[in-house]
Design brief:
Alpha-Beta Plaits, binds iron/sulfur cluster, three-stranded mixed beta sheet, alpha/beta, 2 domains, TIM Barrel, 15 helices
Length: 499
């Protein structure tokens, strides 16, 4: 959070072990450390520290520790330190408070209050090491009846995204993150046979070979969108909203628009890339339908069209309209979704949790008899494989992950992405910082994460006596709630634990 120049972190340097080797001076992306030429010792400007922990991890003597600064203001249970600092910062700057990444709000996690079932005497569990388990996932419209040709092959099957596991990398644009980050995700998606998403940043020329694993996003700014871009990927996503900042557009400052970003986004070098909050040609479901079918026409009906929305109060009715507008997949992004930069108050106070949104949408589409018309992808707060399994039991066909993927690449969740000076080479375009992330090593780590989750998903499915993900989809009997009100249980469509 932007809290002016007041130090949020205290830097503790063990004077006995520090050799003043200056590695921390070189590693800190925020200029916290300086070598005092008179004393040949390193000094610190704590107010500039964002707690990215790069110095701590690179200090060869283990001499550094970063801790929260002691409260310099009096607070109480209502007026917290954060509230006081936010007011001080805004009084200093007159600006809105920004934050990067997701989470952090005090809204309870419903994933943490849901528990999965496991087989005991009846319906015995399945050992995934000995028996095949099917995680293959097809995203797209599922026809009620299949027409077959003379060889028994389906005729006119709507286009599908075929994935080897129900996890995709969510939209992260080149510009908001480094090219090495996008390359790492693209390569991991390719090796694990899933997809990554361009975000609204267009497709860098180096990424065209990953086309089969690419979802090409069309956002309100239409950056980087032309017919080659639309044809390059496996699916097209129309971004209407995102969970971290529902109702708000995007803004990539001109200083991040270097040669490569400018070419990829098809905008002038150094110009601000502003995505308006609404698409200026979409003011109704009918308008959305026109864009869905324009994109289908342009790509000869060969690619599924995703419509991504933020989880908001009437999300179920909106999703019903989107399904009827011809979308093949609806992506719903909950309020814990991450982003490079969002107004703090919007991120923490707008939208609803993905668990409630997903359950409401799945129930509504089933009640209207159109659940098979679309697949649902849930995002915004998926932290681990158990969240994936619970999301699928609530009705998702697959999930989007972003923050967890970036953590796998090395993100330390300092939430300062919007400064463009990510010490770990992720949310930055500064050449010397970008090179800190090795794209191949990043791809290996992101692929490992997906493989590990795959094993865990199979374990949990086997424990429930289920050998195919399809049998878990929307199977809310596999979930029980703890510590929830009757209304929360009703919206989630699950029973209380013990029932
Ligand atoms: S910003 Fe990061 S590298 Fe710099 S002092 Fe703080 S924790 Fe260390
Ligand atoms: S991507 Fe970088 S700047 Fe953003 S939260 Fe992670 S470590 Fe911090």
């Amino acid at each position: 959070m932007g809290f002016g120049k007041r130090a949020l972190y205290a830097i503790e340097r063990d004077s006995e072990s520090c050799t003043h080797c200056r590695i921390c001076v070189r590693q800190c992306a925020n200029g916290v450390y300086r070598l005092n030429p008179n004393t040949a010792k390193v000094t610190s400007d704590e107010a500039a520290c964002v707690n990215c922990r790069r110095c701590v991890e690179f200090c060869p003597a283990g001499a550094l520790a970063i801790r929260p600064a002691l409260a310099e203001t009096i607070s109480n249970s209502f007026w917290t330190r954060q509230d006081l600092r936010a007011i001080q910062s805004q009084a200093d700057s007159g600006g809105i408070l920004l934050v990067g990444m997701g989470g952090g709000s005090s809204i309870p996690s419903y994933f943490d209050r849901m528990l999965l079932n496991a087989s005991q005497v009846t319906n015995p569990s399945i050992d995934p090491l000995r028996e095949p388990m099917e995680l293959r996932t097809f995203l797209g419209r599922k026809p009620v009846r299949l027409e077959l040709d003379e060889k028994g092959r389906p005729l006119g099957l709507p286009p599908q995204l075929e994935l080897e596991l129900p996890v995709l990398f969510s939209a992260m644009s080149f510009g908001s993150v480094s090219l090495n980050t996008v390359k790492a995700l693209a390569a991991a998606a390719q090796s694990e046979q899933t997809c990554y998403n361009t975000g609204e940043g267009g497709l860098h020329r180096d990424l065209y070979p990953f086309g089969k694993n690419t979802i090409c996003q069309v956002a309100s700014g239409r950056f980087g969108v032309d017919i080659d871009y639309l044809n390059a990927g496996a699916a097209i996503e129309i971004k209407i909203g995102q969970g971290a900042k529902p109702g708000i557009g995007g803004h990539l400052p001109g200083e991040k628009v270097g040669d490569d970003v400018s070419e990829t986004r098809m905008i002038p070098l150094g110009s601000d890339a502003i995505s308006p909050a609404p698409h200026h040609d979409i003011y109704s479901i009918e308008d959305l339908r026109q864009l869905v079918f324009s994109l289908k026409e342009a790509t000869v009906y060969a690619k599924p069209i995703i419509v991504k929305i933020a989880a908001v109060h009437n999300v179920a009715a909106i999703a019903s309209g989107i399904a009827r507008a011809g979308a093949d997949i609806i992506a719903i992004d909950g309020c814990r979704g991450g982003t490079g930069a969002a107004p703090l108050r919007t991120r923490e106070h707008v939208g609803i949790p993905i668990e409630l949104a997903l359950a409401a949408v799945d129930s509504r589409l089933r009640a209207e008899g159109i659940r098979g018309e679309v697949s649902l992808v849930a995002g915004g707060g998926i932290r681990h494989s158990a969240d994936v399994v619970k999301a699928i039991a609530l009705g998702a066909d697959a999930v989007y992950i972003a923050t967890s993927a970036l953590i796998a690449l090395g993100c330390r969740l300092c939430q300062k992405c919007y400064t463009g000076r990510c010490g770990w080479g992720i949310a930055t375009q500064v050449p010397e910082l970008v090179q800190r992330l090795d794209a191949e090593e990043g791809a290996r780590r992101a692929a490992n994460l997906l493989r590990a989750w795959k094993h865990e998903i199979k374990e949990m499915l086997g424990g429930m006596g289920i050998n195919a993900l399809e049998s878990l989809r929307g199977n809310r009997l596999m979930l029980r709630g703890v510590g929830m009100s009757d209304n929360e249980l009703r919206v989630l469509g699950i029973r209380a634990a013990g029932e």
